[in-house]
Amino acid sequence: MLKNILGVLLDHQRFVITTHQRPDGDAIGSQIALGRFLEKLGKEVVMFNSDPVPPRLDWIPGSGAIRTGNTQANRSAMVGADVVVVVDTNSRDRLGRAVREALYRYNGPVLLIDHHTGPESWFTWMLCDEHAAATGALVYDLICTYDADLIDAQIATALYTAIMTDTGSFRFAAVTSAVHRMAADLLDRGSYSPSEVYAGVYENHTPSWPPFLAMVLRSLTLLYDGVLAYLTVTPHMLKSAGIGYSEVEGLSEFAMSVAGVKATLVFTETKHGTKVSFRSKGDLCVDVWAQAYGGGGHQNASGAFLKDQSIRTAVTNVLESAPRFLGIEDIDDMVLAEEDQAYFKALSSPN
Fold first, then answer.
1. What is the per-residue pLDDT across 223-242, written as a single tens digit (0 to 9) for each?
2. Are residues 191 and 216 in the same domain?
3. What is the DSSP-derived secondary structure letter of residue 53?
4. Is the dihedral of CA 187, 191, 194, 197 positive or negative?
5. Which domain holds residue 284?
């Protein structure tokens, strides 16, 4: 499969590489690494996303070349491409409005490089492996199949960041000895130490982050004898703290650190609905749970978006299905207690 995909890359000259809205480390890292690799092969490359690179990732070498927005230049680049490459998402909806509108005008082939389950059928070619630790791992294998010596410091740093972030700092179930060997090779070739990469991604919050985190942790609720935990993020919380949605990352880690918790949900209310982040430990699968609400992802990390649903409605709907997907007996915990209802009312207040 890798050789076939390499053939596609070698046989074409002009590429646009894109990824999902609200891009994470795997998305940006994979995009930069693949773009740099193609440029080394003498190809013309444009990297174009609907959303900008978040501040916690803009330190990655090469991130400044990523274009954003629904501009004429970006639409023209898309229309003029020989191949559009989508990395780290297999859903058209997740590409965001700007990329979707540009794709609407594009009539050429599309290559998918991804490690999520259930890819949509509109892609021309696919390099997919749901067992891969990260999309960055697939890009690494692709480059090494051609010539590992092309992995320079920029590519190595981007791919190490991609793999580190999507494996939860090398602790998820997909991490194997082969993944560690891959990471070691990338560190040898890269320009940053593990501590520097970690600090760039996870220790780069604004001073408004601690007050925001305090509000979020106040919402922490344990259900089903502590097996399930959930957190809530409302627009009122973000406005009160003075931060944006770009800093709503990694919150599930705080709930997952509680002894006995096996699954965590983070509900984030937006103008158009509520985003739900599903996380779990070990062999407890949450991807099927996310799929029940139109989402998807990995066994231990998935997401869904409940369009036009308030956070209170989304919490109630998702928690009602918890026993079925967690394999536990249905008990009264699925009904929001009066104090929880009062809590949601207080958080939703604009005053």
1. 999 999 999 999 999 999 99
2. no
3. P
4. negative
5. 209-348
Of 136, 170, 202, which marks where a domain is finished? 202
Bridge-based pairing state of the strands 125-128 and 221-223: unpaired
Considering the domain architecture, whether residues 215 and 178 belong to the same structural domain is answered as no
**pTM of the predicted structure, to 2 decimals:** 0.88
Q: Which of 165, 180, 202 is the last residue of a domain?
A: 202
- SS3 breakdown of the chain: % helix, strand, coil, rounded to 5? 45, 15, 35
Residue 46 shares a structural domain with residue 174 = yes
Give me the CATH number covering residue 38.
Answer: 3.90.1640.10
Half-sphere exposure of 57 (CA within 13 A, CB side): 29
At 201, give phi and psi (nearest 5°). Answer: -85, -45
Longest dimension (CA), the chain: 63
Task: Dump pLDDT digits (tens) for 80-120.
Answer: 999 999 999 999 999 999 999 999 999 999 999 999 988 99
